[in-house]
Design brief:
1175 residues; mainly beta; Immunoglobulin-like; 4 helices; flat; T9SS_type_B; signal; PKD_dom; PKD domain-containing protein; IgGFc-bd_N
Length: 1175
């Protein structure tokens, strides 16, 4: 209870007057008209009739009805949240001309909806957002545009609808002459019943007409009632906007805002894809001062003291000291620098004073009759983090905003969207327009608007808020107030049975203030009221106005009081449960009203008023967090609470046992603690790539593979899941020395043995080493100690034998290494001896080798020295510090070619100590070797015949035999290029002298690849015709030559054209870039035309006894057929081997004329004719 009282006190302290946004384009009652369209005058038939549709949507599910009583139309509808319901309006409700109509379209719904009206046909389309009845006013101005179109009967227009019951008297003052002759500037009145419409059309001449901008439409009093609400729509039946460009036109259709809702500041954002826009600024008061981007506009620049036009592609700021309205116009496509697609449209903008925080809109795309291709949205909102971060389109954040030039307090954004429904929400208010373009068509409208009468409204005040519209909370006492721009003589509140009606004579106001130069007064009922059920309650206020200004003294003001359920606060938290982590509190309340205030109490005396705070508790413990909120109409929620358990974090601690040496174990022990609970997890980070997870705090060992600095860290986790802060220790892992020393080679006669340190370390810190030597000498004494700490110590051994010596090397970091080696103190009597296994004569180009057979009486030899030319060049020697018996030694002497033989003396010394040695020697003979030369070889073609290679030979006096070897060559030197084919081939020549010594010399020969000629297949050629030879070749950069060149068009191409008159052989020769050649032959058979005799005499006289066809033998597949006069086949043959002998089935045929068919084939056409048989 105490917490609740604290919260209430804090909230009451924080509350101030709230100007909530309730009079938006969302509502439950609408009056709409089927506005004028050029096709109402010019349609050639039903297929050209315009259509009207209503698009109805909401963010909640609801039901409703559309009625047009005058035409008997009624249609119920069902709305699914965030979906579009389409209603087709019958054309019988259209406003076909100027005058009075009964065709008001009445839309009602059980819950608030958004309605859009769309009139369209064949690329002439316009759309408007519709305004609920409760937002309508009593005085309007028409805003249109300069009227010109691409056809006649396109009128500037406006129409007015009576929205209240009873008779509404409307005074109309046209700004220009009307279609039926009403003159400009002369007012006239019409009386309308609820739902009746009066439409005014501007006068036209041909394809142009008057602009009705500035026409005044207002509701005035009559004999029976005061001023009533009216709806006004403006537009054009068809219009083009822009000069010197396409003539395409479009209709305009917009619902006008009441004058009382106009604002003083607008931010105009040109469209995407149609960036050069016209804007029209309209003044409600001719004395208003207007600034455009900070520059004052002169009064004379306003047409008729009412409007000012400008064209721009830049974002503009428009301000005034009195209410104004701004309209935005898209041009005809290809006008004013705007590309396709597009066409004219008009949108009434909203001032920054009239914003919304949530809207569901429709990007228009009817199923038929239009072809809108692109859809866009423009946004304007406050330039603050809360607004930008909470702005969402269809549930996704949109942050592509830019500061408004000339006013950085605002930002603007533009985006492309798909057709259909879109939901836009923000924690703060914004302005929005929706528009789209197609080929020669467009649509555009204010995406959502907040229309509040700035001068006359009901005010509700409860404990937590004062709102300037009729709304309250269930079970929450409140006071009624009425704000008026005058002081009434009496006020009567009629509650329709909800409460007793209240009449106040000569009411007194409790406060007054100025708005746009008008004095406003607030009249409050002191008695508080409480309503116990949510719902909508109609209320009427009847005011006696002593200064009616065109209305009677009695003014009836109707409102619907909306009573809402108090909000239900709901919260979520995200918290690790561990100190000192932050707790993330989130408001997840589901609300039907905007939130104006929030209060979080974290249970430790601290509070916050942000939506989703992040809080860090100061100490572990159990806390109860509380949350309350207040909606924009002052409804206080119940208190939501959440228990927050803040558990202590454990404290990590650990120790490391030195020394810290590479590849040596380091002992690590944990000493972490936690004030409550227990530690259940240990995460060790070793400062390298290793992370170790342990399940207990037992000590463990770890070793590093490389030297360097490491930060060892520990994080421990408690049984509550809380983790400690990471604690770390920096260590330096030192290098471990690599102990080593060189053992001396000594005999018993040497005065001392010296040990040479060869220890190393990877960080090159050898100079810092410390040493501990043990010489392993059992005979050592104080004068000749067994130990030393020197780097390279000396020690005297007194007996021969094997000794074990150890060395320990230490670094300043405590890293150590030990090595132990054995060595001998050798005897004093070595014996030098060597053996040559392959005789004592050697070729000078081969190595000379011998085997060591030296030894010593005790121990081992420590060194062997070999002098390879002891007599003449003792500097040539080999020293071996690790000799052993049977070890082979070899040497390559300088090769020589003369004289034929040389001698040299090899001397060997064997050492068992520095002062103990023995020697031996041996003279050997070296023989001369052949001296060879191999002259260069010329390249050859692979298709050349074999050739002899004779360029290799021996040039010194040694006798012997030579032999060749390699690919494609015989030992005698015959070389076959075709075995190599192509490339560089290596040839070796070996000469073996009679003295047994040999040498080898090598050379290379290049074999060029052989080209390949192909003259093509043998060809048949009809006599008198020509043919291309089918020659081709393979090879590198070929040239071609044909021989003979008779009857060829060219002889140096692969496929010349040949026209021989007789049979002909042609030879094709191809030549590669290397000069290699190849040839091939083709035969061209000339097929002469068969010569067919026209008679023969088969009488057996040996003359012309057979019918022989000359040249038919060139056609082996030819067919010959002969027919008698009756068409009977008497002879048939294939080929020419058996000419016709004038018989048929063995009997002579009768004398006469016979018909023949000869088909030579091989490309020659069939021949026919007659042959006579004569006897």
């Amino acid at each position: 209870m105490r917490i609740r009282v604290i919260i209430l006190l804090l909230l009451i302290h924080a509350i101030h007057t709230l100007f909530a946004q309730d009079f938006s384009n969302k509502g439950k009652d609408f009056w709409i008209g089927y506005g004028n369209h050029v096709r109402m005058f010019n349609a050639a038939g039903p297929n050209q009739y315009e259509k009207m549709q209503l698009y109805i949507t909401s963010d909640i599910n609801t039901v409703g009805k559309v009625e047009i009583a005058s035409v008997g139309f009624s249609q119920n509808f069902t709305i699914t949240a965030n979906q579009i319901t389409t209603i087709d309006i019958p054309r019988s409700a259209a406003l076909m001309d100027q005058g009075l109509y009964d065709h008001g379209i009445h839309v009602t719904a059980q819950k608030p909806i958004v309605v859009y009206s769309f009139i369209y046909v064949n690329a002439i389309s316009g759309a408007t957002v519709c305004l609920p009845t409760e937002t309508l006013g009593k005085e309007y101005f028409s805003v249109n545009y300069s009227q010109a179109a691409n056809e006649q009967n396109a009128h500037s227009y406006f129409f007015v609808i009576a929205a209240d019951e009873g008779t509404t008297t409307v005074e109309i003052t046209p700004s220009a002459d009307t279609k039926i002759g009403q003159p400009a500037g002369v007012p006239f009145t019409v009386d309308l019943k609820q739902g009746q419409i009066y439409q005014v059309l501007g006068k036209t001449t041909g394809q142009t007409g008057v602009d009705l901008t500035g026409s005044k439409i207002r509701s005035i009093s009559n004999n029976t009632s005061g001023c009533k609400k009216i709806a006004v729509f403006c537009g054009s039946g068809k219009i083009k906007i822009g000069a010197n460009c396409d003539q395409t036109s479009d209709n305009l259709y917009q619902q006008m805002y009441p004058k009382a809702t106009w604002g003083k500041k607008y931010i105009a954002v040109p469209g995407l894809g149609n960036a050069n826009n016209y804007f029209r600024i309209c003044k409600s008061d001719p004395t208003a001062t207007v600034w455009l981007n900070g520059n004052q506009l002169t009064a004379s620049s306003f047409i008729n003291n009412f409007y000012y036009d400008f064209l721009t592609k830049e974002v503009s700021v428009i301000e005034s000291d009195k209410p104004i309205l701004v309209a935005q116009y898209f041009t005809t496509q290809n006008c004013e620098g705007n590309p396709k697609p597009g066409d004219p449209d008009m949108i009434y903008l909203n001032p920054v004073e009239q914003t919304i925080s949530r809207v569901t809109l429709n990007s228009m795309q009817p199923v038929t009759g239009t072809n809108i291709q692109v859809h866009y949205l423009n946004f304007v909102l406050k330039n603050n983090k809360e607004a930008i971060n909470s702005f969402k389109v269809d549930g996704s954040p949109f942050t592509n905003f830019n500061p408004v030039p000339n006013d950085s307090n605002y930002v603007y954004g533009r985006m492309s969207v798909s057709s259909g429904t879109h939901n836009i929400v923000c924690d703060t208010g914004f302005n929005i327009i929706s528009y789209g373009f197609g080929e020669a068509e467009s649509y555009g409208y204010s995406g959502g608007t907040n229309l509040k009468d700035l001068y006359q409204f009901v005010s509700i005040k409860n404990q937590y808020a004062t709102v300037d519209f009729p709304a309250g909370c269930r079970n929450s006492p409140f006071n009624f107030s009425m704000v008026l721009p005058y002081k009434p003589t009496q006020l009567e509140w009629k509650f329709n049975g909800l409460f007793p009606d209240t009449l106040i004579i000569a009411p007194g106001y409790d406060s007054t203030w100025m708005v746009n130069g008008r004095q406003l007064y607030r009249f409050k009922i002191e008695k508080p009221y409480t309503i116990y059920e949510i719902g909508s309650y109609p209320i009427k206020i009847i005011a006696q106005n002593p200064t009616p200004e065109g209305c009677s003294g009695v003014q009836e003001i109707d409102y619907v009081l909306e009573i809402f359920e108090k909000p239900k606060a709901q919260i979520n938290t995200e918290f690790s449960g561990c100190f000192p982590d932050s707790t993330y509190f989130t408001d997840v309340s589901i609300l039907d009203r905007p939130v104006s205030k929030r209060l979080w109490n974290f249970g430790d005396g601290n509070i916050s008023q942000v939506k989703s705070p992040v809080y860090k508790y100061k100490a572990p413990g159990t806390y109860t967090a509380y949350y309350n909120l207040i909606t924009d109409i002052g409804c206080l929620s119940d208190t939501a609470s959440k228990i927050i358990e803040v558990n202590p974090a454990p404290v990590a601690m650990f120790d490391l046992l030195s020394p810290f040496c590479k590849l040596q174990d380091i002992t690590i022990s944990d000493s972490s603690s936690v004030s409550s609970g227990s530690i259940t997890g240990w995460l060790w980070k070793m400062g390298n790539a290793d992370s170790l997870v342990k399940k207990d705090n037992a000590s463990f060992k770890y070793r590093y593979n490389t030297i360097g600095d490491y930060r060892v860290s520990l994080i421990v986790e408690s049984d509550k899941g809380c983790k400690s802060q990471e604690v770390s220790r920096q260590i330096n892992v030192g290098a471990v020395p690599n102990a080593g020393f060189i053992t001396p080679g000594n005999c018993i006669k040497d005065p001392f043995s010296q040990f040479i340190d060869s220890s190393s370390i990877e960080d090159n810190s050898e100079s810092a080493f410390s040493y501990t030597w043990n010489f392993g000498d059992a005979n050592a004494g104080s004068a000749n100690p067994n130990f030393s700490t020197q780097k390279n110590p000396l020690h005297k051994y007194t007996a021969t034998g094997e000794y074990s010596v150890s060395l320990v090397v230490n670094t300043p970091k405590g890293c150590a290494d030990t090595i132990q080696q054995k060595f001998y103190i050798n005897g004093a009597k070595p014996n030098a001896s060597i053996a040559f296994k392959n005789g004592l004569e050697f070729c000078s180009n081969k190595n000379v080798s011998f085997t060591n057979e030296s030894g010593v009486d005790v121990g081992k030899l420590i060194r062997l020295e070999v002098f390879w030319d002891y007599n003449y060049d003792p500097k040539i020697k080999t020293i071996d510090s690790f000799p052993f018996q049977s070890k082979t030694y070899q040497y390559n002497y300088q090769e020589f070619f003369s004289p034929e033989i040389k001698s040299t003396n090899i001397m060997v010394f064997a050492y068992s100590g520095q002062n103990c040695l023995d020697s031996t020697s041996q003279i050997i003979s070296l023989k001369a070797t052949p001296k060879l030369v191999f002259d260069p070889l010329s390249p050859v073609c692979a298709n050349e015949g074999p050739l002899m290679i004779t360029q290799a030979r021996n040039t010194n006096s040694l006798s012997g035999n030579g032999a060749y070897s390699g690919l494609g060559i015989t030992t005698s030197g015959k070389f076959y290029p075709d075995k190599v084919k192509s490339g560089i081939d290596s040839i070796a020549y070996t000469f073996t002298a009679d003295n047994g010594c040999s040498n080898v010399i090598k050379n290379t020969i290049e074999v060029f690849p052989a080209p390949m000629a192909n003259a093509g297949p043998d060809l048949d050629l009809l006599e008198g015709k020509g043919i291309f030879l089918q020659g081709r070749g393979m090879g590198r950069e070929l040239s071609y030559a044909w021989t003979p060149d008779f009857y060829l068009n060219k002889s140096d191409t692969a496929q010349p054209f040949a026209t021989p008159g007789n049979d002909q052989y042609y030879t094709l020769t191809v030549k590669s870039r290397d000069g290699c050649k190849d040839d091939d032959v083709v035969f061209v058979k000339v097929l002469k035309k068969p010569l067919i005799p026209n008679a023969f005499s088969p009488n057996g006289d040996g003359m012309h006894d057979r019918w022989e066809i000359k040249y038919l033998d060139s056609y082996p597949e030819a067919t010959v057929e002969v027919y008698n006069r009756y068409g009977e086949l008497v002879y048939k043959s294939i080929g020419s081997s058996k000419p016709w002998d004038g018989t048929f089935k063995g009997n002579p045929v009768p004398v006469g004329t016979y018909y023949y068919l000869v088909n030579p084939k091989r490309g020659r056409q069939q021949m026919s004719g007659f042959v006579d048989v004569i006897r």
